[in-house]
Amino acid sequence: MKSQTIEIQFDYKNRNTRFVPLDRDVRGRFLLSRVNDGRSMNYKATIPEDIPGQVLGIDLDRGVGYLLEPIHDHLHIKTMLEKQGYRFEDARQEFPGIDVDAWLFWFKRMADDGKVRIIEGKLPETVNYDPPNRLAPKPKRGPERLREIFTKDPSVAAQYVEWDQKKRAAWESLVGV
After folding, report:
1. Where are the domains of the chain?
2. Which stretch of DSSP H or E encloses residue 168?
3. Is it the case that residue 120 has pLDDT exceeding 90?
4. Cβ neighbours of residue 97 under 8 Å, at least 6 residues apart?
5. pLDDT of 36-89, one tens digit each?
6. Do the beta carbons of residue 30 and residue 48 sit within 8 Å?
């Protein structure tokens, strides 16, 4: 029985796209027909054919993500580009133990933005994932948070030392210590 997979191919304006869960760029498809300035003839001399974009996939049954490098199926293009100094990923890389919801969220977001094409499977309508805000400061926890509170209001520190363990624990969970 074939496992359930979803695959996307990067295909956005001859550009690479950042894939947040892997914290890396994935190569998009390069089409000579998209180069519409004087440089297109220069490209045609060194890259006579279109270059396929990399493919990311999820094996939903195993919870494994993977990256496919389709350039290995186009040996003549690969050989020509390697002579020019380009290097390519292995034909298949696996990423076990991924956060499937995070991958699905970013797959869906990139598909909605037109940066990828879905080439296998179907994305769910909704994904239960809230991406972290990388720009927001991380909240302080533990002794650092207590020090901050006690510095702002020393009367809280005076009360805190008089409380029993149960009251301290309740207060700490309330203020996020």
Report:
1. 5-120, 142-175
2. helix 165-175
3. yes
4. 63, 64
5. 766 666 767 777 678 888 999 999 999 999 999 998 888 888 888 888 888 888
6. no
